[in-house]
Amino acid sequence: MLQAFAKVREKTEAKLLILGIGSQEASLRRLAHELGLKNDIDFLGFVRNPYPYMRAADILVQSSRWEGFGIALVEAMACGTPVVSTDCPSGPREILADGKFGALVRPQDPNGLAEAILKTLERPLAAELLVERAKEFSVEKSAAAYYALIERLVAP
Questions:
Q1: Burial, 114: exposed, middle or buried (Cβ in 10 Å; 0-12, 13-18, 19+)?
Q2: CA-based, 20 to 30 A from 75: which of 67, 100, 115, 141?
Q3: Could you report the per-residue pLDDT of 45-62, keeping only the tens digit for each?
């Protein structure tokens, strides 16, 4: 993500906010400094309520190597925020419907990620479209899908 962001910064003004804590924070801070991004990135740490940040963001970027589901993508879309994600196992491809609702990029491809970010910033999807897609992952719809699956598995 930081390497991609450095490429984005070569083309346009941008600010990167990183929410959360983790064991890689010190190395990420060092890399940000090495890439000359120290003043363009804020490490906010743990944020109890990330939704105001998601709602105010121009884009949410998920640069994971793998995901259990990709809930941050759905949450950002529910806020009307465009998303870009790596096409990692498992979840982003399904959530974004093969790229229909947000760009998918090969994991560990900073050039591709930067390109997808820039394109999304230039031509973001309509917030209403993203909000409607996020509704497909509501608790009610998810529970109904699980129930239907279980019924099919146990039906004679």
A1: buried
A2: 115
A3: 999 999 999 999 999 999
Which residue bears the tokens 């992952």? 137
For the record, the structure tokens of 102 come out as: 């947000």
pTM: 0.91
Q: Write out 78-119 in H/E/C secondary structure.
A: HCCCCEEEECCCCCHHHHCHHHCCCEEECCCCHHHHHHHHHH
- Two structure tokens written together for 126: 């309509």
Query: pLDDT tens, 64-113?
Result: 999 888 999 999 999 999 999 999 998 999 999 999 999 999 999 999 99
Domains and CATH numbers, the chain: 2-154 (3.40.50.2000)
- The answer on pLDDT for 7 being more than 90 is yes
